[in-house]
Amino acid sequence: MRKVFVYSTQLTKVEAMLKQILHYARNHDCSDIHLIAHRKPVVREIGDLVSLDLPPLDKNDVLDIIRTLLSEEQLDLYILGNDVDCSYTDETGHRYRVNVYKQQSLPAIALRLLNNHIPSIDEMKLPPILKDISLLPRGLVLVTGPTGSGKSTTIATMINHINMNKTRHILTLEDPIEYIHESNHSMINQREIHKDVHDFNVGLRSALREDPDVILVGEMRDYETISLALTAAETGHLVFSTLHTTGAAATIDRIIDAFPPHQQSQIRIQLANVLKAVISQSLLPRADYAGRTAVHEIMLMTDAIGNMIRENKIVQINTAIQTGLRIGMQTLDGNLAKLVTDQVISFETASEITSNVELLKRYLGRV
Predict the structure, then answer these.
(1) For residue 179, which of 118, 109, 245 has the smallest C-alpha distance?
(2) Which fold has domain 13-114?
(3) Sheet bearing 238-243, strands edge to edge
(4) Can you give the residue ranges of every domain in the chain?
(5) 127-160 pLDDT per residue, tens
(6) Is this model's pTM higher than 0.85 or not?
(7) Looking at domain 129-330, does it have CATH number 3.40.50.300?
(8) What share of the chain is helix, strand, coil (3-state, %, to 5)?
(9) Rounded to whole angstroms, how far apart are CA atoms 200 and 224?
């Protein structure tokens, strides 16, 4: 149970409560907040769920917070039984991604804390090869990983790297907008789904008529979005997107499996031609308990990997990544072993995420 700072200002009960929760989350390295009727507020603090030392929220408390977070139009959608995604900016200028839903007919809210500052690739200590990937002239770049693994932050750093180094028209389609970019060398237009454009598919079709050089598709959710993203990459754009997959092989399988069987052979050929990189990412607790650190698998497209995709030999891609270290590729187990050797994470933490503990031990020389 975590104690929170109590505000004594003349705020309504709900305003004061929400302010306390947001203040605590901002100051304790929390990534998410969960507000559910008849439960204490819960935060995800350095990867773990923690209940705050506050009274349980009743149904009206949560509904009042929902009214604070949503516009009238969004509130109408929620009352009609829809889940609602949006962004929220508090009085201090900090931003949050919001999902409002119901569970057991009771109101519930999930908030993801967003950073106003867009860090650089160096600040985030991301693999330097991401700089080269960011400056590719065309193709498809995928950042993958489970929910909460920092995919949006990694893509934001790559978009920021383009913005600082190239004169490009960057167009983003996001649900909702997470990082707000200011045009620097590049011109950036950010479109929010349900606010600026109806959905990803409509936005992607329009994007091809809006003279972009770089397109960010917040998430490739379905067959049509994947198909349009591939077409955009094929027609000379640099396309960034995300998938909730782990590893390059699983990502490529997911894309191909999204299409009907009679189209899969053609999609393999198309994917082999446009895919440039798959960056798979997870966040792991640091050994010194000072937050979390990212671990990566990085696949770069080569002639050999392209042939594996065309010939449906996806299972061989992991071996190809191991042999591609000299050009910037990176295996998950190799990265885990380095983090363990550098005492950034514990061996036990690495063992929980690897799919092959014996291979990890061989990397570490522990056999």
Answers:
(1) 118
(2) Beta-Lactamase (3.30.450)
(3) 187-192, 169-174, 214-217, 238-243, 139-144, 275-285, 292-300
(4) 13-114, 129-330
(5) 999 999 999 999 999 999 998 899 999 999 999 9
(6) yes
(7) yes
(8) 40, 25, 35
(9) 9
